[in-house]
Amino acid sequence: MRQALVIAAHGSHLNAESSAPTFTHADTIRATGAFDEVRETFWKEEPSFREGLRTVDAEEVYLVPLFVSEGYFTEQVIPREFRLEEWDPELWDSDGTSATHATLTAGDTGQTVHYCGPVGTHDSMSDVIVQRAESVTGDPDVGEGFGLAVVGHGTERNENSAKAIEYHADRIRGMDRFDEVEALFMDEDPEVDDVTEFFESDDIVVVPLFIADGYHTQEDIPEDMGLTDDYRTGWETPAEVDGHRIWYSGAVGTEPLMADVLLEQAADAGADVRAAIERVREETRERVASGD
Amino acid sequence: MDESHVEAFADAASDGVAFDGIEARVEGDSYAVEAADGSATVVATEEFADVAAEYDEYVTNWYFWHATAPQAQARWAFLRWVEGADSTPVPERYDRLREGLTTTWGQLAITVSLTGGGDRVYELRHEDDQAEIDRGEALALDTYEDPLDARELAKHDDDGQYRPLKTAPTLQTGWEFAALGPADLVEAVHAFYPATVQNWYREREGEFDVNHWHETVERQTGIYGVVQTWDRGEGHEHVDWVAEACCDDSQCLKRREWEYDEETALDPGGNQTDEGEFPCREPCSLVISAARKWTKLEGEESRTYEFELTPSEKEQVEEIIDAVADGRTADVREADIYDGANRYRTRFLRAKRFDDEGNLSGIETDD
């Protein structure tokens, strides 16, 4: 049976770079040959969620949202736009960070769709955050003497938005690797503006749990943290703020190892992709090691 | 043609073949082969290879469409359409293919040619670049091989501006895919114009599914839910304006097939004015985003303002709006002060008619 991976990402009407990580991760997975087809689909770009499935020939589709948290997009928009008519959030039986998958029939095409939880809440996302810290410091053993801030958008409208951030902060804290780990937010407390107040360590790695670099990760957050007065003039890495060194990584979603999380989500839903996961883990680690 | 073509054709002929002007079937111990040009042969099984060689073009054509071209319906039908397979008999089509046969799809020019053994090779360029090549111009085009590179080419126009709408008539020039196989050609077309092949195919098959304005707006939620309030079932003049603003040929190459609802056609009519090859099945995300903004703006009541303008100044305002709406501002020449949308003319108007706060004729908006 032919199997396809369909990645559902947000995209943008304004920013050409918003879709770039989606393409990159799709290409990494395509190169493994684990799926007969790999297709990128977008809320704001084309192919749209509405038409994504009709561009796929396989009868068996693993649909993975390239989104950070469970919530409005994963529970309402994606199932509606992909016409997963039997969808009910109960099918994921999730507490907000534990969605696995649900198998449904697409009203548009009749394909069998294994609808997976978003990449952002998958356990292996914690590894990507850690690897992001390694990438930005250039130190594969980074941890001792360092604090790690996992930064989310946060919103009062959906509690799951913060849950995903806190979930990974807890998991990484449990690894006992960094001296301190904190979950911080743009739009709710504790706020990333005051990042240095939450850490005693001289060195702080700041990793935003965002899928793509854009307005928030390249303008808002660097200015809010005081890395720069004007994002257009750029900032140093690390940058001195209130006597701390801030290692700011930009969106974690651009990390090559994200391709692994997409595969892991599909694997949890039953896709036969174990060999591909091994390969992607090796390759993306090599890319980091070679400073690529 | 090589042995594999003949073997595959012989295999198929044992169940009967009738394709693109050739028929072949088993009759007792013999094969009967008949072509559309009137030639017919009956031979013993072991001589089939010799006969097949006589029908070389028909056999390699059959082989290409059954063993080489992607066997997915929409892709297959599109590739057939590219070479006019349903309307041009094989001998004539092969003559054209030897020369290179060019078809356009949106702003894409696709040239299909024959290679050895009846295989096809596809060249893909911007139609403007193709036209220059056809005129004998020597163009320096960047050459690509991977069809997925089309995703990057589709991102920006010739001025480097981001293209959020893939079917906007602003595809950049200066590139070519010089030798794509059939599956890769469709993949590249998909990257330039996603889902157009599939929707075109559904339309041909009578299975095209349109979601009209009303039903599309009705399913919106979140920040787009507000558009529903703009859809009160009291006429559709506002949706006419949306279609005129966004769906005109000058803005999008898709042929709008959605109307206000199943019973209510918009004015302008989509399929009457619109020549696009591939259909549009519902208001896209750009239209919905714009409609959200208009829903808010259209909630305002009109007011009466009094502005002092000379007749020429009034006409100039109209010219400026036209120039912006038609994307013509970049073409207005620096010193062409005869054009109302000229920058110096516009700056003069602003200097004369705006107060320090930017109010036209000094009239505050809140007045």
TrEMBL record, chain A:
User: What protein name is recorded for this chain?
Assistant: Sirohydrochlorin cobaltochelatase
- Which controlled-vocabulary keywords does the entry list? Cobalamin biosynthesis, Cobalt, Lyase, Metal-binding
Q: Name one GO biological process term.
A: cobalamin biosynthetic process
InterPro entries registered for this protein in UniProt? CbiX-like (IPR002762), Sirohydro_Cobaltochel/CbiX (IPR050963)
GO MF terms, alphabetically ordered: lyase activity; metal ion binding
Gene3D superfamilies given in the database record: 3.40.50.1400
Q: Give the Pfam families listed for this entry.
A: CbiX
From TrEMBL, chain B:
- The source's domain of life comes to Archaea
Please report the stretch or stretches of sequence annotated as the DR2241 4Fe-4S iron-sulfur cluster binding domain.
206-293
- Sequence ranges assigned to domain DR2241 stabilising in this UniProt record: 90-204
Looking up InterPro entries in the UniProt record yields:
DR2241_Fer4, DR2241_middle, DUF7348
- Domain (DUF7348) spans 3-70
One short Pfam name that applies is DR2241
Instruction: Name the chain's protein.
Output: DR2241 stabilising domain-containing protein
Species of provenance = Haloarcula limicola
